[in-house]
């Protein structure tokens, strides 16, 4: 009897633990809107092939395909950080494309059709270091701190995994760039400037502007991809240049591919460079 009672108790404890774990997982929201109206969506853990095959148009030697596995879910910004959001946190707006640069004019007469409003355009002319500082200061805001939310730049692998959204093609929407203008602002349709975030179609995971508008800083130091399979990669421990991803308003289609990557000194600023934020999932959701 004692043995049966012990077994029953252990089974009951196991059931309680399982139910508790499932309850915690069920509480993790699929989308979060924080105190500065920034939306983040839950990216599910999983495995994908990072990089590009040699025969993909635009493929480069540093895009060697390799298997990447994520052991945990994480959050990623639905949109690139906007000028308004950056202003709220950093008390300044360094962007080149301010209101006077985004006025809409009639293509024939040149008369103003719509006054410029850059508030929801992605912030740009931001260095990697300034993007990191933004994440730190955002994390220190009272409401974010009380909620235990700690923001950071996404790793390069996290960025590509989210961009692909389960796709294996050159772009998240297909193998060629014919539909790129439906999803991105690039050199073929941008009128040589940024545009408000979220105007194009999102990928299948609900993320906007992943293939264009502004380049996006990632946390990693730059290095050529290895062929080896990796788990939760964070990039090299040191280096001289940081990675940026995602295409831009003044770049051709092949540089807007899911695997396209480039690098530059982290102190560099350009009206091509912006970012979106990432966040680890807390152990227990609110």
Number of strands: 14
What does the largest sheet look like? Answer: 5 strands, antiparallel
Q: Supply the number of structural domains.
A: 1
Overall geometry: globular
Please, what is the CATH homologous superfamily?
paralog of FGE (formylglycine-generating enzyme)
Q: How many angstroms separate the termini?
A: 42 Å
Helix content: 10-25%
Structure notes:
There is one protein chain. By secondary structure, this protein is an alpha+beta fold. The protein has one domain: paralog of FGE (formylglycine-generating enzyme) (Alpha-Beta Complex). It contains six helices and 14 strands. It has helices at 2-27, 83-90, 128-140, 142-146, 156-164, 180-183, and strands spanning 31-33, 39-43, 46-50, 66-70, 74-77, 104-105, 112-114, 151-152, 215-221, 230-231, 242-245, 261-264, 273-274, 278-280. The strands form four sheets. It has a five-stranded antiparallel β-sheet. A four-stranded mixed β-sheet has the order 12-11-9-13. A hairpin with a 6-residue loop joins strand 6 and strand 7 (112-114). It is globular, with a radius of gyration of 21 Å. The two termini are 42 Å apart. The model is unreliable at 15-25 (pLDDT under 50).
């Amino acid at each position: 009897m004692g043995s049966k009672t012990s077994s029953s108790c252990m089974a009951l404890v196991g059931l309680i633990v399982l139910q508790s774990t499932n309850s915690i997982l069920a509480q993790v929201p699929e989308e979060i809107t924080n105190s500065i109206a920034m939306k983040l969506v839950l990216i599910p853990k999983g495995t994908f092939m990072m990089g590009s095959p040699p025969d993909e148009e635009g493929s480069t030697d540093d895009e060697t395909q390799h298997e990447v596995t994520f052991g945990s879910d994480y959050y990623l910004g639905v949109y690139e950080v906007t000028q308004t959001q950056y202003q709220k946190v950093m008390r300044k707006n360094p962007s080149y494309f301010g209101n006077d640069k985004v006025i809409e004019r009639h293509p024939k007469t040149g008369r103003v059709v719509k006054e410029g409003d850059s508030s929801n355009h992605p912030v740009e002319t931001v260095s990697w270091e300034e993007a990191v500082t933004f994440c730190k200061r955002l994390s220190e805001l009272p409401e974010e701190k009380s909620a235990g939310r700690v923001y950071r730049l996404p790793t390069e692998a996290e960025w590509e995994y989210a961009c692909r959204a389960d796709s294996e093609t050159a772009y998240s929407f297909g193998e060629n760039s014919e539909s790129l203008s439906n999803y991105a602002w690039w050199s073929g349709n941008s009128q040589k400037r940024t545009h408000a975030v979220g105007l194009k179609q999102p990928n299948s995971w609900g993320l906007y502007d992943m293939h264009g508008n502004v380049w996006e800083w990632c946390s990693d130091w730059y290095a050529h991809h290895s062929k080896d399979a990796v788990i939760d990669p964070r990039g090299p421990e040191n280096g001289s240049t940081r990675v940026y991803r995602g295409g831009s308003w003044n770049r051709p289609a092949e540089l807007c591919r899911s695997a396209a990557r480039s690098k530059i000194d982290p102190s560099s600023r350009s009206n091509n460079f912006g970012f979106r934020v990432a966040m680890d999932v807390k152990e227990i959701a609110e």
